[in-house]
Design goal:
alpha/beta; 10 strands; D-Maltodextrin-Binding Protein, domain 2; 345 residues; 17% strand
Length: 345
Amino acid sequence: MLSRRTLWISTLALVATSALLLGAVSAQSEPLKIRIGWVGVPNSWAPLFEAKKDLAKHWGKSYVLELTRFQGLGPQITALASNNLDIAPLAFASIAAAVQNAGLDDLRVIMDEKQDGIPGTYSTEFMVLKDGPIKKVEDLRGKVLATNGIGGGWDMATRAIMLRHGMVDQKDYSVIEVKLPNMMAMLVDKKADLVTAPLPFSANPKFREVGRTLYTFRDAFGSAVGAAQLCARAGFLQKNRAAMVDFAEDAVRIIRWYWDPANHDAVVALVSRLSGQKPENLKSWLFVKGKDNYRDLNGIPNIEAIQKNIEVQKTLGLVKEVIDMKKYSDVSIVNDALKRLGGPI
């Protein structure tokens, strides 16, 4: 017969084992928390995904999104590198910097967020005072240029076009960081001689009254621009592939809802609420084909455009080496998601 002490120890061991097993089952049943970065509405997808999570079949089951706002794309590289962020929308310039400067050799482009300069679509504008002294790029020598985030795609566009005109940062001009909603005020108050004006800010009639476009994002690179792509690290993707395919499926479903003309009034009202923009400033262009930035209805990133953008950076001395984007992309996740949705459209 077993002694009381032996029975007592055996009972404790059984209780402890049961607790561990229950804890493991509970942990496995918890949806994956995907920490995703964003900058502004409607340029960033993350808040738009969250606002329509009623269309997401897998949200709350296999995954949930945790949103973190950043001033620009550059700071998200640090968050990715320190494992404080799982998905970051990075421009082509940020991708090259992440790989070469931050050592993120495991970075992977997984989905499209926004493309700029696709023929027949909108391209981000860089504006000066309409009645000011700046008439051409050369007139920016010795001036103050405003960007929303040093190291981001828009910042790199300005550096590229300035280099093309023989000017370099800190020697021939200076760059300051300004939040996008404050760009017009900085221009009007003459605290900056050139400002970055993406949608929705460039659509503001008051901005049009005081400013004029000096050049566009497409002008800076002479082609379409991989303005922002959702990026993650290879280890995270490998470990959580099933949940990421679920996320991609939901994301594409939501993207298509925003682009459906039948939903336009609802989209305008939703984005107005999220962004604080007046509906009348959104209705004419927001998710209107040909008037908004290009966003792929299938979520497929334009790897070829990103490759060309980085090659242009190299010719201008803005990156050390040209990286092979085939190595730094993984479109298999979104492709698997598209199979569930009946294929691309």
